[in-house]
Amino acid sequence: MNRSIIRLFGVVILLFTVLIVWTSRWTVFDATALQNNSLNRLQFFATEKIKRGRILADNGAVLAESVRAGGGTWTRRYPYGSLFAQAVGYDVLSQHQHAGLEWSRESQLLNKPTGLTSVFGSFNGGPKVGDEVHTTLDPKAQRLARQLVQHAMSAYGATSGAVVAIVPQTGAVKVMYASPTYNDNDPSACAKTPGCSESNYAATAELPPGSTFKLVTTTAALDSGRYTPNSIFNGNSPVTISGHSLENDSNYSYGQVTLTKALTDSINTVYAPLGVKLGSSLMQAYMQRFGFYSIPPLDYPADEMVASGERFYKGFCGNRSNTPKLVPVTNSCVDLGRTAIGQANLTVTPLQMAMVVSAIANDGKLMEPRLTSKVVNTDGQIVDSVSPQEYDQVMKPKIAAELQQMMRDVVEEGTGTAANLNGLNIGGKTGTASTGAYKNGQELDDAWFVGFPEANPRIAVAVELTNIPNGFGGTYAAPIAAQVIKTLLAEKP
Amino acid sequence: MRARNRELFGLIPASLLISAGFAAVFIQRSNQLSTVSLVYGALFLGMCVVAHIFIRVTLPHADPYIFPLVAVLACFGIVMVYRIYGATFARQQAQWFVLGLALFVATVIVFRDYRKLENYRYLIVIGSLLLLILPRVPGIEDPTNGAYLEIHLGSLTFQPTEFGKVGLVVFLASYLRDHRQALASGRKILGYRVPPFKHLGPLLLLWGIAMLILIFLHDVGSSLMFYGGLLAILYVATDRISFVLVGVVAFAAGAWYLATHIPHIDARVQDWLHPFNYKLYNAPGGSFQLANGQFAMAAGGLFGQGFGQAMLTVPGTHPTAYLIPAPGTDMIYTVITDELGLFGGAALLITYLILCARGFKAAILARDSFSKLLATGLSSILAIQVFVIVGGVTRVIPLTGVTLPFVSYGGSSILANFVLVALLLLVSDRARRPEYAR
Question: Helix or strand or coil: residue A135?
Answer without folding.
Answer: strand
